[in-house]
Design goal:
Order of helices and strands: HHHHHHH
Radius of gyration: 14 Å
Largest sheet: none
Distance between the termini: 18 Å
Number of domains: 1
Helix content: 55-70%
Strand content: under 5%
CATH topology: TerB-like
Shape: globular
Length: about 130
């Protein structure tokens, strides 16, 4: 499961043509925290990833994926239209209505407490159709 999340994050980071150091560190941290070996993580940065399996994720995993995407998008403090579009498309593939992005963009920050994440999860559940 962690590999598909990392592939989504790498795709997003590559949209503007350059993976910033903070983006690379964020993706690496998530990979290592999920037990992905460093050499596997590093190899992901040099390629685009197609056909990422998202069908068998739990609602908790879907939420984690979409929040991590929005955190990564906001990490360099510049938002690109292509990044927002990509996150919206992934949200739809995860079973969310694409308008979930409004609440996510408003509430997601780089560092979030557990209670903030729980509150955001409740807000975003109304957008989940699958």
């Amino acid at each position: 499961m962690a590999l598909s999340q990392l592939k989504l994050l790498v795709n997003l980071a590559r949209i503007d043509g350059d993976i910033a150091d903070r983006e690379r560190k964020y993706i690496t941290t998530i990979g290592l925290a999920n037990g992905v070996p460093m050499e596997d993580i590093v190899s992901l940065f040099n390629q685009d990833h197609e056909n990422i399996g998202l069908m068998h994720l739990t609602n908790n995993e879907k939420f984690d994926y979409i929040v991590s995407l929005v955190q990564l998008m906001k990490i360099d403090e510049r938002l690109y239209q292509e990044e927002i579009k990509y996150c919206s498309e992934v949200a739809a593939r995860l079973g969310y209505d694409q308008t979930v992005m409004f609440d996510l963009m408003l509430h997601v920050r780089e560092e979030m407490q557990r209670n903030e994440l729980q509150a955001l999860k409740k807000i975003t559940e109304k957008y989940l159709s699958k």
